[in-house]
Amino acid sequence: MSQNPKELKYAVTHEWVKLEGDNVVKVGITDFAQQELGDLVYIELPEVGRQLAIEEQCAVVESVKTASDLFSPVAGEVIAINDSLADAPEQVNEDAFNTWLFSLRINSSDDLDRLLDAEDYEDAIS
Q: Which CATH architecture has domain 9-107?
């Protein structure tokens, strides 16, 4: 099992969140999630401008094994998506913690307090 970066926050649904500043976060999926899914072949991301609620289904990742829904770990507005994933979804498999899927301007920084730290996420997946 890989080490989960301590500077990130984690959802029990296997998304990671990185605070970028000014209530903007980047969201991706964990290394554990990409290993479980296998080789990714397609990623459907939310539209820029979409308002997301906490735990709202907002994206889909498809692998050679299965398709899986992704959920927003925090509430906010989608302000950017990682367009490079349309042609190269395997970037997530190659480096899950450095491949973001979308960015949100979060409604409340309190949402971040609901997420797990690296140690608690490790406990949840072990």
A: Beta Barrel (2.40)
